[in-house]
Task: structure prediction
Amino acid sequence: MTHNKVAHIYASALLDIGQERGILDALEEELGVVSQILEEDEDILRYLNSPGISPESKRAFIDRVFQGNISDILINLLKVLVDKGRQSIIGDIDTSLRALIDEVKNREKVVLVSTVKLDDAHLEQLRGILKNQLQKEIFFIEEIDESILGGIVLKIGDLIIDASLANDLNSFGDNLLQRKLRSESSYED
Result:
């Protein structure tokens, strides 16, 4: 079974527990924090992934680091992952859980690329348009990319809407080139 399939199974179990107990938002936030800690702190991840350290020591380490900071549900999840040798998929579990929660809560993540940070009024206007079109709650992940020159690029799942000045200029150049090629072929006949 691939990591993503295994991660999806763990994420589904967390989703079920979170919904049953009414703590889904807390689980999402806590798992995000744990995933970020493990991504940023190479020493902790190296310790948990070290084959020379016993699972008992790793479980005790998890208690020392996380007890009182995250729910017992996530502490137990971390311990199970350590016992199964799957602690390296915590980030994948986080990603899968967020995707499942987005489905349940009818949310859509939209990556918004622009040359400058958009003001709140423009963001709300764009959010309203997308909400009407997609029939979902919209939350933006904003990225700044000066290479688009102006305008915006929206990434919604696999769909990319490129309303950037760079794209417009490229399209304009391509159109000019096509016209030139057509006019040259007309003179050759």
In short: The domain at 3-102 is CATH 1.10.520.20 (Peroxidase; domain 1). The chain has eight helices and four strands. The first strand starts at residue 107 and ends at 114. The mean pLDDT is 89.
